[in-house]
Amino acid sequence: MRVSVIGCGHLGAPHAAALAELGHDVIGVELNPETVKKLQSGRSHFYEKGLDELLDRHVPAGRLRFTSSLSEAAEFADLHFVAVGTPLRADGRGYDVGQVVGAVRALAPLLRRPATIVGKSTVTVGTVARLQEIITEHAGSDGVDLVWNPEFLREGHAVEDSLYPDRIVVGLTSSAAEENVREVYAPILARGDAELIVTDPATAEVLKSAANAFLSTKISYINAMAEVCEITGADVATVAHGIGIDPRIGHGGMRPGIGYGGGCLPKDVAAFTHRVGEIGATGAADLLKAVEKVNHARMDAAHDLVERAYGGPLDTATIAVLGASFKAGTSDVRNSPALRLAGLLHSSAARTVIHDPESVAAARHLHPEYSYAEDIRTALDGADIVVLATEWPEFTKDTALPTTAARVVRRRVLVDVRTAVNTSVWTAAGWTVHQLGRPVQHPTA
Ligand SMILES: NC(=O)C1=CN([C@@H]2O[C@H](COP(=O)(O)OP(=O)(O)OC[C@H]3O[C@@H](n4cnc5c(N)ncnc54)[C@H](O)[C@@H]3O)[C@@H](O)[C@H]2O)C=CC1
Ligand SMILES: O=C(O)[C@H]1O[C@H](OP(=O)(O)OP(=O)(O)OC[C@H]2O[C@@H](n3ccc(=O)[nH]c3=O)[C@H](O)[C@@H]2O)[C@H](O)[C@@H](O)[C@@H]1O
Predict the structure, then answer these.
(1) Which end of the chain has fewer beta carbons closer than 10 Å to its terminal beta carbon, N or C?
(2) 264 CA distance to ligand 2 centroid (A)?
(3) Residue 229 annotated among the catalytic residues of the structure
(4) Binding residue per annotation — 261?
(5) Highest taxon of the source (predicted)?
């Protein structure tokens, strides 16, 4: 099929590349000229595992191209994915849907033959109905359908999740549109391992918001239990493991830490909390407010833990912060808890140096006032405390790191705010390890 993807960010770029991999002819439309140039050269503008390989394969072959011209895409494609941003409004009261409304409003009059617009961006319930009115009023042809097909990919796994999704959810009202959606995802559906859920637009909108709200609730739940463990001297890692054995609970999303961050969960929970309050669903609003409250409190808990580990105020401390991205596997620093903690430490400590394997450039762009190190050794040099802020395997799986780091730090004190390291490897190399909701682990050597 000839398809377009409008908005080539963290969702759109992998989605466009995956569609080319599935055998479609794809045109990506992006407003940012630098992004277009980068993608045209076959390189991604952010780090995402496997994405450059797909771009390498399909851009030179001409199966995947990028442009800033929406009319070129309107002329070329019969199916148009909309993957533009839905940031939180400045006042926090729901999404700013300007990018989505702008893209649909601009595309509709350019469509001169029947076409299907497939929304992928995350929107609050009611948005599709509003967009449908815009299409009815402005479409340049009859037979322009709108469907909503929310996305469930995770950053760091965007390519794999796009090629091998566990579900495809489509909210629609037209059978012609359903056929087109089935055709575009035919190679995935033929495998039989992804469930196709065809429903109405409102259900698709709520389903996506409910998914992210549930993931956030689970994270806040285990973080609330970490607070209980901190007070009682219990071990939250054992609690998480023990309760997760029950398949009704499961182990996914049960890693305690500094709370959920990133370009999606925080804004999606905030927007959904606002929306459910607005429509009078008070039970949902109260539940989600509590989820957000727990999440915000983790940052203070993490800062307090660093102070406790140092033995008092940090104004004389040199701190190495390992990790800046919001989670491992991505260079994305949007709403990154790691970078927020680094910022707090930057304000309270004598010296704070941040290192990340992939996101130093993005972090420096956002916070040029912080100090960064391109290599881990420079970051660790002379540190009184090492704070593990993002669970990159470079920090958690390298069994030599505790020994090599011990040679350059001033004190062997690790604060792992992601509950990610194998503590016995560190304590065996002479480190004291502090984690949220767990008893302090003392050196065994
Ligand atoms: N990042 C993720 O992992 C996922 C994101 N989502 C949702 O997908 C949407 C996009 O998110 P991200 O890709 O993270 O945002 P992003 O900010 O990385 O990308 C959005 C892109 O759209 C471009 N854009 C805006 N208006 C445009 C227009 N009229 N024409 C062409 N390009 C335009 C922007 O320049 C930007 O590059 C959001 O609603 C998000 O909630 C959903 C699932 C996963
Ligand atoms: O709508 C979206 O954009 C996406 O949001 C999340 O994906 P993502 O933001 O890539 O990241 P997650 O892996 O869910 O992690 C989110 C945050 O929670 C934190 N987290 C995650 C899991 C956990 O056990 N503990 C924990 O603190 C992570 O470190 C990160 O800060 C969802 O997992 C995706 O299904 C969804 O499509």
Answers:
(1) C
(2) 8
(3) no
(4) yes
(5) Bacteria
Domain layout of the chain by residue ranges: 2-199, 208-295, 298-435
- Is 298-435 a CATH 3.40.50.720 domain? yes
**Stretch 330-341: mean pLDDT, rounded?**
97
Query: Is 298-435 the same fold as 2-199?
Result: yes
- ipTM comes to 0.98
Measure Cα distances from 362 to 45, 47, 332, 399 in Å.
10, 10, 7, 28
Tell the residue number behind the tokens 């400590």, with chain if given.
349
CB-ligand 1 contact for 209 (6 Å cutoff): no
What is the rounded distance in angstroms from the CA atom of residue 294 to the CA atom of residue 297? Answer: 5
**Exposed, middle or buried: residue 179 (CB in 10 Å: 0-12, 13-18, 19+)?**
exposed
Domain 2-199 architecture: 3-Layer(aba) Sandwich (3.40)
| pTM score, whole prediction | 0.96
Residue given tokens 């700013």 in the structure block: 96
Which uninterrupted H or E stretch holds 228? Answer: helix 201-232
Measured CA to CA in angstroms, residue 442 lies from 187, 285, 423, 429 at distances of: 53, 42, 9, 11
For the stretch 250-280, pLDDT in tens is: 999 999 999 999 999 999 999 999 999 999 9
The amino acid sitting at 128 is V
Q: How far apart are CA 311 and CA 301, in angstroms?
A: 15
C-alpha span between 86 and 125 (Å, rounded): 13
